[in-house]
Amino acid sequence: MKVGVIGLGYVGLTLSIASALRGIKIYGIENNSATLESIQGGKAHFYEPFIDELLQLCIDRNFFVSKTFEKGQDLDAFIITIGTPLIGDDKKVNYQFLLSSLDALAACYTGKEVVILRSTISVGTTRKIVLPYLSKISGLPESKIKVAFCPERTIEGKAIEELYSLPQVIGANNSESFEMASLFFKTLTDSIIQVPSLEMAELVKLFNNTYRDVHFAMGNAFNEIAQSFGIDGYSAIEAANKGYKRSNIGLPGYVGGPCLEKDPYILSENMPNHNGKNFIINSRKYNESLEDSTLNWVKSNYSPKAIIGISGLAFKGIPETSDLRGSVAVNIARKIVLAGFKVALHDFTAKNEELADLNLGEVSTDFFELVEKAETVLIMNNSKRYLNIDKSKLEKVIGSAKYTIFDSWNILPQEIKNIEALDIKTLGNYKILEHDE
Ligand SMILES: NC(=O)c1ccc[n+]([C@@H]2O[C@H](COP(=O)([O-])OP(=O)(O)OC[C@H]3O[C@@H](n4cnc5c(N)ncnc54)[C@H](O)[C@@H]3O)[C@@H](O)[C@H]2O)c1
Questions:
Q1: Does the pLDDT value for residue 434 go beyond 80?
Q2: What is the pTM of this model?
Q3: Which residues are bridge partners to 114 per DSSP?
Q4: What would be the CATH architecture of the domain defined by 208-437?
Q5: 120 lines ligand 1 (CB under 6 A)
Q6: Averaged over 94-109, what is the pLDDT?
Q7: Domain 2-197 is of which CATH architecture?
Q8: Residue whose CA lies nearest to ligand 1 atom number 15
Q9: Could you give the CA distance from residue 329 to residue 253 in angstroms, rounded to a whole number?
Q10: CA–CA dist 105, 111 (Å, integer)
Q11: Among residues 49, 190, 258, 297, which one has the fewest Cβ atoms lying within 10 Å of its Cβ?
């Protein structure tokens, strides 16, 4: 098969590499010049284990990249993997990139190809936006157009591995579209789940991410409830889960990232108000409310002259990623700065230049420098690298005066917690929510 991929971000690049390595000829287009150059040079523009090595195996062999498609390029399929960010106070999807990707494929679209939409979109978008557009540019009736919605459900940090192992959900507008989409995805995975409509496939993706968001919101709510009884929420949830297979309550923690911060809003788009919609939006807003609770805690414990250290800016630590998009830590850092404080930043995986580009505060080259610089440190993600912090080095930097580290994920090992001068707070024992009126 010869497949055109539009947008070589996290989703487009990992999918292109995984399928090029399975023998498919991939023609990827990317309109960001820096991203394109980096890929052409065999270097991904984001962190993913072994991605550069895998890219170098296929670039210019089975995987060709450029800025645009050419007229007469004879492809079997297009896969659209552009971003779908939210805009405005009502948090609706900005379809500017989807429309520009359709304009880009128009250069060589003939009507015989299947167009696969993989970006996360609101229910009905494939039928209402993509199908009429393709019909218009090809002059064919909508019944003759081949489209499918095939959601991306991999986790950043393990994307290539999961492309080869997760079931692929496919919703198509007719059997020919399904067969063509399925032919492509069968080269990646043994498990294809055919759903009866484009809309069901769109919904499945949104269900998966909204489920996770609500699941974590419940962990945060239970934590707050436990604390209102003077009980450590973290330990209470651990005890409720231990050896009891019918309980898998999420531990308290910040919930963000480029998908979870937006997908519940995308799910609720074009939906009338009802209890189901209120439930998911309230859960999302509840997760978001941890940002203001943390800000309030900083405000009530430190004076604006203080430098607040923030470590773990990437939106999650496991699997490891450098992705700062949708990061709660970045949102909190921004709010702390707006409240008049200075912040100093550190992350184990994101590059220092990326942290500097946030324009929030000084970047520390390592964790110890951050502790030295800041009056307190907030550890915001669960990177496994916190497990290997050198105890004696940390002891030396802290000295004998009391020093507070807010270990939101309770990730620091016991030997670090045992440092006498250290006052450790976690989301479980920290009365971080008590200021949340
Ligand atoms: N990141 C993830 O792990 C993940 C997982 C599941 C679903 N998704 C969804 O997949 C979609 C893509 O996510 P992403 O993280 O890869 O986004 P991204 O922003 O990293 O990548 C999109 C890329 O498309 C390029 N682009 C935009 N318009 C273009 C055009 N007209 N022609 C060529 N290139 C164009 C951009 O420059 C960018 O590099 C989103 O809808 C997202 O919600 C992402």
A1: no
A2: 0.93
A3: 77, 146
A4: 3-Layer(aba) Sandwich (3.40)
A5: yes
A6: 97
A7: 3-Layer(aba) Sandwich (3.40)
A8: 10
A9: 11
A10: 11
A11: 190
